[in-house]
From TrEMBL:
Family note: Belongs to the UPF0756 family.
Localization, UniProt: Cell membrane
Keyword presence, Transmembrane helix: yes
Record's keyword terms, sorted: Cell membrane, Membrane, Transmembrane, Transmembrane helix
UniProt protein name: UPF0756 membrane protein P8V03_09305
HAMAP family per the UniProt record, alphabetical: UPF0756 (MF_01874)
Protein's membrane topology: Multi-pass membrane protein
Pfam family, one: DUF441
Residue ranges of the TM segments: 6-35, 47-65, 77-98, 110-127
Amino acid sequence: MLCKIILILLAVFSFFAKNKNMSIAAIIILILTFSNNEKPLLFIEKYFLDVGMIFLMMWMLVPIVKSGDSIVTNIKNLLNINGMVSLLSGIFVAVLAAKGIGFLKGSIDVMSGVIIGSIVGIALLGGAPVGPLIASGIAYEVVKIINLIFKNS
């Protein structure tokens, strides 16, 4: 019963935080808990991380196809400070994420902390659970710091 209350609270908090993805996810999981069948939950737990990663990677590859002939222009865009910091941030976050997945799978306490922290960040603080956005956020902050340093010099 406690898990259902938590899911309801997550859905409500997420709704008020204008995070429709978390609201929808919480509602779907809540509905599945009423079936008293563990199979759908076990299926989600086993496969949805990989399925989500596939969809995320597909989303990341679409601009390559959409840009078509202008891919050379996109590569040239990497040669400025924003492009270089973004490229390095993307590499850094991808490597950290790969290490983090192994770390998560090996430790229940780490998994609990990351999941609860992510849920709080997503539902209450308007966060988003995706690596490329983290890379963009890191890149933004690094570029901001670089600009502050060099504008003041």
